[in-house]
Structures
1.
Amino acid sequence: MSRYCRIRSTNKKGVFHRSIFIILVSGLKYLHVMKLYKTGKGILLQFKEEYYVLQQEWDKLINRDNLYTYLLSEYLNGKKITKEEVAEWQRELLPPIGTQEVWAAGVTYLRSRDARMEESKDTGGADCYSRVYEAERPELFFKSLPHRVVGHQQTVYIRKDSTWNVPEPELALYINAAGVIQGYTIGNDMSSRSIEGENPLYLPQAKVYEKSAGLGPCLYVPEQPISPETGIYMTIHRNEVKMYEGNTTVSRMKRMLPELVSYLYKECDFATGCFLMTGTCLVPPTDFTLQPNDRVTISIDGIGTMVNFVDVKGGN
Ligand code: DO4
Ligand code: MG
């Protein structure tokens, strides 16, 4: 074998070994995680493909200083249940929230800034979005109290007084009372683009109404902070026809997650912690608006998938 060939075959082997290594490492990444499911029957902890029932109170459980380590020391005290029982428990899935407030960050991705500038271009509000994108202080807004939050396989509403409605798929953080990120979940920041586009001061009406926030399916508690390479995916179906599909990664966010948390906790206390949606990067085309019976599917690597069905308050 010529020297050239030897080098080539060594490189090929090297590439092969590197690929195996990467596959193993990405698999291991998801092995060292805990997932907490809140259900009507109680709390389920998933660890290494097994499920344990934890007899605890949700708010007290998640508001720990080191939730991952606590769960690691505690899971064997839980009762292990069978796959059949898990299916029964999962049928009663609730959003992974107790008494916490839900806040949201806006214009954290370039795509979101451009979308807001587009929707407000005729009404003169566009400038505030480009300024907040560049500013040191992020945009943070109050999104929801727990009773307006829905979970996986549950219905979100669109407003009847809005002509342009979209879901916003977002990585959501759970931050404990001490201001430290302890877990992650999938967020759906349902929004009226026509109301916000008319005047930025209408933001609370565009964002806060019954069933306007989705969180689920679980609280994902990894040993290490979530990777910037984490993917976020969304599809929207209407009568089984795919109307929209898009994906992005957390790395495209302009701000750092602890930076958002530090602004939120500057002058606010959260006795049982808080959820923070971190902004959207996936924006359906301008001519798209949600309709009742649409199905929104949001997935985030490691965390899982949340499906929301769309309706209006009082039915249509
Ligand atoms: O600026 C208004 C809200 C933006 C938002 O919700 C987002 O960027 O996700
Ligand atoms: Mg949003």
Note: The two ends are 74 Å apart (CA to CA).
2.
Amino acid sequence: MSNTSLPDQPLDAIIVGAGLSGMYQLHTLRDQLGLRVKVLEAADGVGGTWYHNRYPGARCDSESHSYMFYFSQELVQSWEWSERYPQQPEILRYMNHVADFLQLRPDLVFNTRVVAAEFDEPHNLWRITTASGQVWQAKYLITAVGCLSSANVPAIKGLDSFQGQWVHTSAWPHEGVDMRGKRVGVVGTGSTGIQAIPVIAEQAAHLTVFQRTANYSIPARNAPLSEDFKRHVKENAEEIRALMQETPNAHCFRIEPRSALEVTDEERQAIYQAAWDKGGLQFRATFNDLLRDKEANDTAARFIKHKIQQVVHDPQIAALLSDIDHPFAAKRPPIDSHYFETFNRDNVQLVDIRSHPIECIDADGIQTTQAHYPLDTIVFATGFDAMTGSLLRMNISGRGGLALKDAWHAGPRTYLGLQVPGFPNMFTITGPGSPSVLCNLPPQIEQHVNWITDCIAYLQTHGIRQMEADTAASDDWVQQVNEAAHATLLPQVRHSWYLGANVPGKPRVFMPYAGGFARYRGICDDVAAQGYRGFHLIA
Ligand code: NA7
């Protein structure tokens, strides 16, 4: 049940988005601070990213016991995951469980897309317009719109003329896509493509994979969780939470305190082999310099490329799949269930669109500069206009009518990824400039929401009307985000969506903060402890 009637009086806060961040933010502001709050959500249910991404094989790359809230012991004790990496339907069930457990539904307003948000300076209010023309008003605007919510559908000539069905993985039809007996093409071999391809290959008559950039992938080794492990999680919730808060990526594992170059070749191979057998993102935690030192990284890259060549039978296909042009984990490292093995199937073909790009799509399929591939279904696993896309499409304008898209014409500029100068009383959960996509998200969402909640409590009790990030503090933060990125190998990737390089015309700025979650948390805490240093607080 949702409440769609407009309140007579302005609210204290409007939150946009009913994913994990929007739901937790509603809980803290409403139930801890006693504020009047609503969450506006475009979809007809909770879940955010996990509501929309229903493609075959969709599952979380974070281990299930790290992909949940830990702020409430009761909530932890009330839930059990079934697998090491939960599938999308189970994650969506968890989200609905959170909504019910925290009794959030009366304040969730579904089927309500925000099309504009304007700061009304004289009244010190945000006016938020929805697609149906409703105008909501609130003192605080909090965006909880996710980092990967704005689909990137490539503008390929002729797509409209395609007579079959095409779909982007993040807008998967709820009724599913029937692949049986179909010739299916998948464009894109990022984390999503790598999850979807093995499952689609089992369903379709024939699958053609269009690969622009070959990618590393580590076996996930997914499996059902044992009763012992489920009990371990419940009994050690505080320790698990503390561990995630101490690690750079907010995962449940530590990075080994040794260089890949300080062990013998034999030891290194044994370490990589053990990590390969164990599976998962932990592979990149085997050494502490894989993301900082190219020579160290090369050792991991060589190991994985060799594995690909062992797994894939056809040497030409193996060569294409292992011809990877970037350092390991410098792009988001996928994990998989039988991805490379899928290319040994008779009904799967790999097409190299780096050497022979897609020219156009016609009624019957995809035309590259080399050949025509007849298809019934095209699946775009082509990623997102990440981090800024969902914020910019809300048409937000701040002080003096300043449009966010103009404020960010040269790339996102924030203070701590939490506020934007010129946009008073607006907070961005996991926005650009915060660790966001470089981290396991639930712990970071908890950290952001807690920080925003403490901050709003401070503003309310100190009679502060407006809080706004200082321009110089924001410029300095942008510089720190840039320096943190350049201390790693991350900016070296040509096509990286961390840089916005996957969307034509998007400014190339490294968007997430790469200095690590633990360090970031410390910085945010210091800023708060110093009376919100770098923010203007106007009584
Ligand atoms: P990604 O990681 O952005 O991957 C998108 C893939 O699509 C990648 O292989 C791209 O190749 C390819 N792509 C993008 N545009 C095109 C065009 N125009 N033509 C051909 N190929 C294209 O998105 P995902 O959805 O896989 O993953 C996003 C995150 O979701 C992931 O990191 C997890 O956090 C969950 P490219 O590498 O750009 O050459």
Note: The chain has 16 helices and 20 strands.
3.
Amino acid sequence: MKKAVLFSDCHFPLGKVDDKMFSSFTEHLGRCIYTGLYEPGHPTADEDGFRMDVMDLIKELNVPVIRYPGGNFVSCYDWHDGIGPKENRPKRMEYAWSSIETNEFGIDEFCRWAKKAGVEPMIAVNLGTGSIKDAGDLVEYCNHPGGTYWSDLRIKNGSKEPYNIKYWCLGNEMEGAWQAGHLSAEDYAKKALEAAKIMRWVDPSIKLVACGSSYDNLPTYLEWDRIMMKELYDQVDYLSTHNYTMRAGQSVKDYLSSYVQLDNHIKNSVKVLDYVKAVNRKKKDIKICLDEWNVWNFQDIKLDSLGDLNGLTTFEITSADKWEIAPPILQEKYSLLDALVVGGLGISLLNNCDTVEIACLAQLVNVIAPITTVKGGGVYKQTTFYPYEFISRYGRGTVLKSVMDSDTYSSVYGECNTVASSVIYDEKTGEIHIFALNTDENDDVELKLDLPQFADKKVSKHIVLCGDDLDAINTIDTPDNVTPKEITPSGSAAAVLPKLSFNVLILK
Ligand code: AHR
């Protein structure tokens, strides 16, 4: 058996993890909203048509914030279409995903759903085909108490109390040619600045997210952020970035090393922020809002390498028949291996808690998601549900700086530790929570925990996600094919991490 030592000292905290680190994202895309969150007539649907079986699973995940309504969708979306009597709402051609949008579900339904689910909405405004005035009107509709046109319309539509939405995204992936109304960095800066001004005039208490670089293979990567953040620095509170991890022909080892890629990706955005702050002599700090992250293997298309994605439009990345209502697209089926990768990404998120304040798993239901529903039928947990659940449940507290002394290996992302880990001190319970990913394909690793100030604490619970078949998936008929298990805790300051496993260690 291989050996590793994890050293951590409570005198060196990295930072407090913000609860918003465990947020998620729901878009009008495929079956995420329609037949995902919302399916009137479903046996579990409540009086609003919200699927309670889905809501119960979301509550299990304890999701604090959910971003809505997109994604690429938002850049083609007119929010006015989704308010008022449902029978009067227009059916539209939805360009982002070549679908039909019925508009049965809009901002009022989302806010009602969010209240029932106990989550806080984060709303993206359309800065592609939408106007800055539309953005201001939406803030007025949602947040103004009453006595004005849009706020009174909200009241007329059934919501007397304002929604008081705090977090607002200034567009989505505006640097990408696939985005309806995409802009250069200079033009985005101008439009976002004017939108931000109006939105803050309507409600000065809101927090704004500037739309940063998404895909690092774009020629504008980071330059976009540098140019537009120079203009927007004083007006915004967060810089967004997106990061999707793809297997795309990589070996198991390289794919598992993706936690390093996410770590680099986050740190790159932070470097640009530091640069803009220093060059422009700014005082305030801006946090990162990683408002889309996940494993996404583009299973709707055949992909041999990441390069195959270059130049594809969103029309081409799905198998959608054109202009269907809620087509079953981007319905990834996650394997055990994908779940291990998500665990590693979770570790990187936590280890960047000093700069990342908001992170949204993209997405939550049916589309690139940990929860899958059958239309008119049941719901099940994908393999990736579990690592997300664990980081949400055990990742809250203070991340301590730590040093891993383990074997290393060469990967596409450079030299990596065989064991990746994050150490969290939960002040509320006094427990230490350790996440550990063993990437070794052949050997278990005995991990010794060297925690000087917590020498009295022993591993009292050990949850592990692992298995012989890395390709194993869950389905509606075999929902428990891949599930985590509890193994006998060592009762000492050590644990054996099975080969290719994601582990949660609770020390009391
Ligand atoms: O989450 C799916 C899509 O990925 C989103 O609509 C877009 O923002 C990103 O490219």
Note: The longest helix spans residues 258-279.
